[in-house]
Amino acid sequence: MEGPHNTHAWSGYDAIPDKDQPEPTNGPGGPWPWPEPEWEAPLHCIFAFTAVAFEHAEKPLNNNLDMARWGRETMQPRNYSNSPYFELWLRSVSRYLQRSGKATRDELIHPRTSHSIDYPAIIDEKSLNRAIEIENNAKKEAVPGFGLPIRQESHGGQTYPVYSSSEYQVDALPVVAPKFKVGDRVRAILLRSDSHSRHYPMYRNKIGTVVACYGLAKPEPNTFKPYYQGAYPDVNCKGLQSYLVPLYSVRFESSAVWGPQYVERGTGNTSKTILYADMWEPYLRRIGPLVVDS
């Protein structure tokens, strides 16, 4: 979760608004309200478009949500901050079309006229080059739990990293039992990555307690199972491989995350506010038991 969208714990955004406050209205210098309920139609159009464009396509040409999110994260920060919600998704989808050969570089960076309507460029050339550089850097990175890629494969004129794991099978259930159990104290790893990750910065290097271990099930279309069926995002976003990795709910004292001066204190060393984060196994390391002074 690097990139311009990552504003966890940043200051300067003013107080959290009251949940009962009136919806903001458009105006000079004013915020844009979330376009309920009309937002569903354009979002469905975007996903329908990608589904048609890549129907029956195999990896790495079958776009997934982690790839789509990563496409947004590689945007130039000022462009990201100044773009409406659906423009962010349009940028990501367009980049994927260009990367997979369904659209050309020129179609992205040059304005277009169709039926007497002028359309601006989807992305400027400098920002496109920046996004490509970020992706290329990420292809060489080590991934938590998997290490450095063992090789690069070429598909459709693009290269994709290949990772190896002795613990997790591709597109299958793990071959080993989960490493952690309920009650284990764990420390979240430090991470800096150009890739897409769901390891949120505010939890990195913080200590918490495992309170749940989610079961895993291989994803099956149109089938509900009471398990988490998402692939490990740090690898899945690259588009070539998918791994199912144990997922846990970890409990953090808010004072451990934000600092004691920014939270309400409870009794003893506890906080009044508790945070729960779902974390993939490679994000965690077991630590010793808590020692309490008598």
Structural shape: globular
What would the CATH topology of the largest domain be?
Cyclin A, domain 1
Number of discrete helical segments: 8
What's the rounded overall pLDDT mean? 82
Question: Strands across the major sheet, in which order?
Answer: 8-7-6-5-9
Number of domains: 2
Name the CATH superfamily assignment of the largest domain.
Nitrile hydratase, beta subunit
Q: What's the helix-strand series? A: HHHHHEEHEEEEHEHEE
In short:
24% of the residues lie in helices and 15% in strands.
Characterise the protein shown here.
With 294 residues, this protein is of the alpha+beta class. The chain folds into two domains: 1-20 and 32-138, Cyclin A, domain 1, CATH 1.10.472.20; 168-294, Roll (SH3 type barrels), CATH 2.30.30.50. It has eight helices and nine strands. It has helices at 40-53, 65-73, 77-81, 85-99, 105-109, 125-138, 233-236, 254-258, and strands spanning 112-114, 117-119, 151-155, 158-162, 185-188, 207-214, 247-253, 274-280, 284-286. The strands form three sheets. The protein has a five-stranded antiparallel β-sheet with strand order 8-7-6-5-9. The protein has a two-stranded antiparallel sheet with strand order 1-2. A hairpin with a 2-residue loop joins strand 1 (112-114) and strand 2. The longest helix has 15 residues, at 85-99. It is globular and about 70 Å long. It starts with 39 loop residues before the first helix and ends in an 8-residue tail after the last strand.
Topology:
Blueprint: H1 40-53, H2 65-73, H3 77-81, H4 85-99, H5 105-109, E1 112-114, E2 117-119, H6 125-138, E3 151-155, E4 158-162, E5 185-188, E6 207-214, H7 233-236, E7 247-253, H8 254-258, E8 274-280, E9 284-286
Antiparallel strand pairs: 1-2, 3-4, 5-6, 5-9, 6-7, 7-8
Helix pairs in contact: 1-4, 2-4
